[in-house]
Design goal:
heterotrimer, A mainly alpha (335), B mainly alpha (301), C alpha/beta (406), A: 335 residues, mainly alpha, ABC transporter involved in vitamin B12 uptake, BtuC, two-stranded antiparallel ribbon, 14 helices, 2 strands, 74% helix, C: 406 residues, alpha/beta, Rossmann fold, four-stranded parallel beta sheet
Chain lengths: 335, 301, 406
C-alpha cells in the first residue's frame, strides 16, 4: 500500500496540536468530553497500529490482541496502585512486559499458521480475563473488583484541563510510536518483515532469520498494543476483567480491516472509525426508528453489523485502500 | 469414583455439543476455506425457528426437520447473497463480514424473541435410556445424534456423486470445473450443509443450556478449540476433538479438586478450567501443528 | 494536618449537601439539565453483548417516562430520558457517562446498570457532584454517604441478603454442611462474603465452594463436585440461566439438599419453570418485589395497575419478565423523588430529597416493605421476606426482615 503523503501528514499533525487551543473560542465544540473521545480514538489507533505491525506487515494473524492490551493496562494499573509509580513511567514498563509476553507467545506461534494461529491467539484473549481473576493473583490484580485509579494530573503547572493534558499525552505517544514504526518498516528489518509476509520461503532461503524476525515482531506488536492498554488505564482510571473480554480483540481486528491492512495511516483511520461507529450506531438506529418511521425495533447492534458488511462490500481493502483506489481511478480518468 | 464417572459422562455430554458445532465449522472450512464466526449465532437463530414452529403447534420432529431445511436454505442464500460478491476479498475482510453477521443474528433474535431464557423440550423421553445418576437420556441422545450426523456426512462425502463433487470443488477448483462440477454452487451447498448441521447442534443444545440469543457464545469458543485439536479440515477429527475438550475441562476441575483435597492447597479449579484446557490445546498444536488428525499440506513454492 | 483538614472539609461539604435547609421553596432553582419545561435524566444499560438480557430494563424505564410525559410530566416539566448502550463494558460506560454529563448536561443519572460499570464511574460522578441515583446493582458499596455523597443504591444489597440466608440456615438446618455455587465476578463475591460473615464462627460448615464463568456452557461439572462433598444445604449464587441448570442437574443426580437461591434468580418464568417445577419444590429465596408470574398477586391492586400499564404503555414487552417489574418500581421511585423536589431542581436538592424518604410505600414492593432513606442511610430498600417455592409459585413465610434486625 502507498505511503501517506508527507506534507498532508505534517498539516494534520499541526492541526491536531492546535485544536485544544481553540477551546476558549468554541467552548462547546472543543469540549473536554470531545477531547476525551479523541483520546480514546488515539488509544485505539495505537492498539490497531500494533496489530497492523504483526498482521499487516508480517502476515501473522492475531485475533487476541486484547490480551496484550489487558496486560499493558494491568501492568500500568498495578504499578500506579501498588508502587505509586507516576503514570508516565508506566508506559515503558508496560511496553517491556508486553514485549516479553508477546515474544514468548511468538515462540509456539512459529509452529502455527493461518487459521491455527488465529485461533490460538483467540484462545489467549479468552484466557486473560480468567487469569486476572486467578486466586493467587487476586492480591495484585484486585480480582473481580478491578483497580480504581486517578486520572493523570497536569504537570509543570500548565494551564490545561485534565482532558486537554490527556489528549496531548496520548497524541505525543502516538506520534512517537508512529514515527518509530514508519522508520522501522523503512529499514532493512522492516523489509525483512514484509518479505516474510510475501514470500516466506524466498525470505528463508535468502538468509533472513525468519524465526527471530517473527518472534521479535510479535513482541514489538504486543508492546505497541500494551502501551495503548497502559494509556487506557490512565484515561479510564479503572481496570477490571470485564473491560477485556474477547470483544476487545474483535474491535481491534475490525479497526485493522476497516482502516486498511498493511497501512500505517490505515491503523489511525481504523482506530478513529471504530470509536465513531461505536458511538453513532445507536444514534443511527434511533434515527431509523423515529425519523424513518420503521416500526421494527432495529437495535444499534444490528445497525453495527449491517454497517460492517456494507463497508466490506464497498471497500474490501479498507478505507485507506478504497480511497487510494478511488484516487487512482480519478487520476486515470484525467490522464 | 462415582464422581469420576459422573465427570467423565458429563464431559462427554458437553463434548457432544462442542463436537456438533465444531462439525458445522469444519463443513464450511472444507468447502470454502473460511472459519465462520457467525456459526453459533446462525445455529441459535435456527433453534428459535424450531421453537417458534413448536409454539405454533407442530411436533418436535416436524419442527426439527423444517428448521433444518430452513437453515439449509438460509445458508445457501447467505453464501450467494453476501459472500459470493466478496470471494476475491482478503481473508480478514471476510472475517469482519462474519462478525457483522454475528451481530445481526444475535440482535435480531433478541428483538424478535426477547432475551428471556426459554425452556426447550427434549425429544428423548425421561425414562427411555441413560444410566441413572451418571448420564441422562438427553445427554446420551445428544451423543448419539452427533455420531449419526457424523455418519451421514461420511456417507454423503464418500459415496454420493454430489458429495464427491463437493470435495473435488474444495480441493482443486480448476480441475473440478474442467470435469463439469459447478464449483460456485458447491460452495453454496457447503454453506447450506454447515447451517443445517449447526441447526441440529442448536436444537440439541437448547434443552441443556436453555434457549436465549447468547446461548452459543461460550459453546462456540469450545467448538473452536475442538476443531483445532482434531484438525480443522477433518470432520471425524472435530468430533473426537469435541469429546476430548469436553472431558478435558471436567478433568482439569476434578484434578484440581483432588489436589486441594489431598494437600489443602488451591492450584486450579473451575475458574481456570478453560484456561488450562486452552493451554493444553495450544501445546498439542505446537507438537502437531495441523491438529491430531489433520494432514500437513506440503506447499509448493 | 493536611489530611485532617481535607477530611474536615469533605465532612462539612457533605453536611451542607445533606442538611435540610429550607431556603426558597417558592423560588425556581435549576442546575444543568433542568428548566421550566424539561428535566434531563441520563441512563446506561447493556443493549448489546452478552448482558443484553438486561436491556428490557432500559426499555421499560423509557416507556415509563413516556407515559409520565403523556400524563403531563412532573410538576409541569417533561422528562427527557437519554439512555445509552454501554455493552456492560466499564470503559464504554465511562465514555457514555461523560457524554451524558458533559455533552447532554443531564441533571442526574439514574439506574445505571452493573457493578463493574458503576464502579468505573463512581469517583467521576462524585467529583463532578452529579447525582447517581438508584443504581441497578446490589453490591453493598453504593450506600456510603460519607465518602460518596452523590451515589445511592436501590435494591436490598447482596451482602445483607446473604447474611439472612446464613442466619436462616444456622437456625433451621441441623448439622448443616453447605455447598456454594458462585458466579466468578463481583456480584458472586459480594454474596459469598456476606454469607461467610453471616455464618460467623460456623464458617467451617461450608463443605464445598465452587465457581463458574459466564462463558461456561453448563454448570453440570460444578454441581457434581458439590454433590460429591456430601453437603445437605445448597446455596445457589447464579444468574437465572445457570441457577436453573444447577437445580435441574441436582434433581437429575438425585441430590436433595435444602436449597437457597439468590434473589437475582427468583423469577418463576426465567428460573423456576426452566429448572422444572419437580426439581425446585421447597427452594428458599428472599424477595422484595412481586413476581409477575406468581399467581398469588393476580388480584393485588399494584399488580393490576402494573399489568394495565404494561398493556397500555409498554405493549410488546414480556409480562412474565421480572425485570419489567423492577424497572417500573425503580422508575416510580425516581418519579416520586423528582416530584418532591418541586421547583427546586438543583442537584443538591435532588440528593436531599432522595435521602429523605420515610417508610414510603412504593408500588410493587411486597406488602410491608417500604422505602426509607436519610442523610446517613443510602440504602432505600433494606427489607426482604423469605419465601419457599411450592407448586408453581412462591409462598412467603415468616416476617419481613430488616437488615438491621437480621
Amino acid at each position: 500500500m502507498p505511503a501517506f503523503p508527507k506534507k498532508l501528514l505534517w498539516v494534520l499533525l499541526a492541526l491536531a496540536f492546535l485544536v485544544p487551543l481553540l477551546h476558549p473560542l468554541f467552548p462547546d465544540v472543543v469540549s473536554d468530553y470531545r477531547l476525551f473521545l479523541v483520546s480514546t480514538m488515539i488509544i485505539a489507533a495505537i492498539a490497531v497500529l500494533g496489530l497492523n505491525l504483526l498482521t499487516g506487515f508480517n502476515g501473522q494473524i492475531s485475533l487476541g490482541h486484547g490480551a496484550f492490551y489487558a496486560v499493558g493496562a494491568y501492568t500500568a494499573a498495578v504499578l500506579m496502585d501498588h508502587l505509586n509509580m507516576p503514570y508516565w513511567a508506566t508506559l515503558p514498563c508496560a511496553a517491556v512486559v508486553c514485549f516479553i509476553v508477546g515474544y514468548l507467545f511468538g515462540l509456539p506461534a512459529l509452529r502455527l499458521e493461518g487459521h491455527y494461529l488465529a485461533l490460538a491467539t483467540f484462545a489467549l484473549a479468552l484466557a486473560v480475563p480468567q487469569i486476572l481473576k486467578y486466586k493467587w493473583l487476586e492480591g495484585v490484580t484486585g480480582g473481580v473488583q478491578g483497580i480504581v485509579l486517578n486520572k493523570p494530573e497536569v504537570p509543570f503547572g500548565l494551564p490545561l484541563s485534565e482532558d486537554q493534558w490527556l489528549y496531548y499525552y496520548c497524541l505525543i505517544v502516538m506520534v512517537v510510536l508512529y514515527w518509530a514504526a514508519a522508520n522501522m518498516l523503512n529499514s532493512r528489518s522492516g523489509r525483512a518483515m514484509m518479505a516474510i509476509r510475501d514470500q516466506y520461503m524466498a525470505a528463508d532461503t535468502m538468509g533472513i532469520d525468519t524465526a527471530l524476525y517473527k518472534t521479535v515482531t510479535f513482541g514489538i506488536s504486543a508492546a505497541y498494543t500494551g502501551i495503548a492498554g497502559a494509556l487506557s488505564a490512565s484515561a479510564i482510571a479503572f481496570v477490571s476483567p470485564d473491560s477485556f473480554t474477547i470483544f476487545l480483540s474483535i474491535k481491534f481486528l475490525i479497526g485493522l480491516v476497516v482502516g486498511g491492512v498493511g497501512s500505517l495511516a490505515g491503523s489511525v483511520v481504523g482506530g478513529i472509525f471504530y470509536v465513531l461507529v461505536d458511538n453513532s450506531a445507536q444514534a443511527l438506529s434511533l434515527f431509523v426508528k423515529n425519523d424513518l418511521g420503521l416500526q421494527f425495533d432495529l437495535s444499534a447492534y444490528t445497525v453495527f453489523g449491517i454497517l460492517l458488511i456494507v463497508l466490506m462490500y464497498l471497500m474490501p481493502m479498507g478505507i485507506v485502500g478504497g480511497v487510494y483506489l478511488l484516487m487512482r481511478r480519478l487520476r486515470g480518468l484525467r490522464g | 469414583m462415582e464422581q469420576f464417572l459422573q465427570q467423565i459422562a458429563s464431559g462427554l455430554a458437553n463434548g457432544a455439543i462442542y463436537a456438533c458445532v465444531a462439525l458445522a465449522l469444519v463443513m464450511i472450512y472444507v468447502s470454502t476455506d473460511h472459519i465462520n464466526f457467525a456459526q453459533g449465532e446462525m445455529a441459535m437463530f435456527s433453534t428459535y425457528i424450531s421453537w417458534q414452529l413448536m409454539t405454533w403447534g407442530l411436533s418436535f420432529w416436524v419442527a426439527f426437520i423444517l428448521a433444518v431445511v430452513f437453515s439449509f436454505v438460509l445458508g445457501v442464500i447467505i453464501e450467494r447473497a453476501i459472500l459470493r460478491p466478496l470471494h476475491n476479498a482478503p481473508v480478514l475482510s471476510i472475517v469482519v463480514v462474519f462478525i457483522g453477521l454475528l451481530a445481526i443474528c444475535n440482535s435480531m433474535a433478541g428483538a424478535i424473541w426477547s432475551y428471556l431464557i426459554k425452556e426447550f423440550p427434549s425429544p428423548f423421553p425421561k425414562s427411555s435410556f441413560g444410566i441413572a445418576g451418571v448420564i441422562g437420556p438427553h445427554q446420551l441422545g445428544v451423543v448419539m445424534v452427533t455420531l449419526i450426523v457424523l455418519g451421514l456426512l461420511f456417507i454423503f462425502f464418500r459415496y454420493t456423486p454430489l458429495g464427491l463433487a463437493m470435495r473435488a470443488a474444495a480441493q482443486n477448483p480448476q480441475m473440478a470445473r474442467l470435469v463439469g462440477v459447478r464449483v460456485d454452487w458447491m460452495l453454496a451447498l457447503g454453506w447450506g450443509l454447515a447451517a443445517a448441521v449447526g441447526a441440529v447442534a442448536g436444537i440439541m443444545v437448547a434443552h441443556i443450556v436453555y434457549l436465549d440469543p447468547n446461548m452459543m457464545g461460550g459453546i462456540l469458543l469450545y467448538a473452536f478449540a475442538s476443531a483445532l485439536v482434531g484438525g480443522i479440515g477433518n470432520p471425524g477429527g472435530a468430533v473426537v476433538g469435541g469429546f476430548i475438550v469436553g472431558v478435558l475441562e471436567n478433568m482439569v476441575a476434578y484434578a484440581g479438586n483432588q489436589i486441594e483435597k489431598a494437600t489443602g492447597i488451591y492450584i486450579i479449579g473451575n475458574g481456570e478450567k478453560l484456561t488450562v484446557a486452552l493451554i493444553i490445546v495450544i501445546t498439542v498444536l505446537t507438537v502437531k501443528p495441523a491438529g491430531l488428525f489433520g494432514r500437513v499440506v506440503v506447499k509448493r513454492v | 494536618m493536611k489530611t485532617n483538614r481535607r477530611t474536615f472539609v469533605a465532612g462539612v461539604s457533605a453536611a451542607a449537601v445533606l442538611s435540610g435547609s429550607r431556603v426558597a421553596y417558592a423560588q425556581k432553582k435549576y442546575d444543568d439539565g433542568a428548566s421550566d419545561t424539561e428535566i434531563k435524566i441520563g441512563h446506561t444499560n447493556p443493549y448489546s453483548g452478552p448482558a443484553s438480557a438486561y436491556g428490557v430494563i432500559g426499555k421499560t424505564i423509557e416507556a415509563y417516562w413516556k407515559s409520565v410525559n403523556e400524563a403531563g410530566g412532573i410538576n409541569g416539566r417533561k422528562v427527557k430520558f437519554i439512555t445509552l448502550d454501554d455493552g456492560y463494558n466499564p470503559a464504554k460506560t465511562v465514555e457514555c457517562i461523560r457524554q451524558l454529563v458533559e455533552q447532554d448536561k443531564v441533571l442526574c443519572t439514574f439506574n445505571t446498570l452493573g457493578t463493574p460499570t458503576n464502579t468505573a464511574i463512581h469517583k467521576y460522578m462524585n467529583q463532578k457532584k452529579v447525582p447517581m441515583l438508584y443504581v441497578a446493582t446490589g453490591a453493598s458499596k453504593w450506600g456510603k454517604p460519607k465518602e460518596f455523597p452523590w451515589t445511592m443504591g436501590y435494591q436490598p444489597d447482596y451482602h445483607t441478603e446473604a447474611v439472612i440466608y446464613a442466619k436462616h440456615i444456622l437456625a433451621n438446618v441441623k448439622d448443616a454442611k453447605i455447598a456454594v455455587l458462585m458466579q466468578n465476578d463481583d456480584y458472586g463475591k459480594d454474596y459469598y462474603e456476606g454469607f461467610k460473615e453471616g455464618l460467623g464462627k460456623d464458617i467451617g460448615r461450608i463443605a464445598k465452594h465452587v465457581s463458574y464463568e459466564t462463558t461456561d456452557p453448563t454448570v453440570d461439572s460444578q454441581v457434581i463436585q458439590l454433590k460429591d462433598s456430601g453437603a445437605n444445604v445448597f446455596f445457589n449464587i447464579a444468574i437465572p440461566k445457570f441457577a436453573a441448570q444447577a437445580m435441574r442437574k441436582a434433581g437429575d443426580l438425585g441430590w436433595k439438599p435444602v436449597q437457597y437461591l439468590n434473589n437475582v434468580s427468583s423469577s418463576v418464568a426465567s428460573t423456576m419453570k426452566p429448572a422444572g417445577f419437580e426439581n425446585v419444590q421447597g427452594v428458599i429465596t428472599a424477595q422484595y418485589l412481586m413476581d409477575p408470574t406468581d399467581k398469588q398477586w393476580d388480584d393485588n391492586a399494584d399488580m393490576k395497575m402494573w399489568r394495565a400499564w404494561m398493556a397500555k404503555s409498554n405493549p410488546g414487552a414480556s409480562l412474565s419478565d421480572a425485570s419489567n417489574v423492577f424497572a417500573h418500581s425503580v422508575a416510580a421511585l425516581m418519579h416520586e423523588t423528582l416530584k418532591k423536589c418541586g421547583d427546586n431542581l438543583t442537584r443538591e436538592n435532588l440528593m436531599r430529597q432522595a435521602a429523605n424518604f420515610q417508610k414510603f410505600r412504593l408500588p410493587l414492593l411486597l406488602p410491608g416493605i417500604t422505602v426509607s432513606t436519610s442523610p446517613t442511610d443510602y440504602y432505600p430498600i433494606q427489607a426482604v421476606q423469605l419465601s419457599r417455592f411450592k407448586g408453581e409459585s412462591w409462598d412467603l413465610f415468616g416476617d419481613v426482615m430488616h437488615a438491621e434486625s437480621s
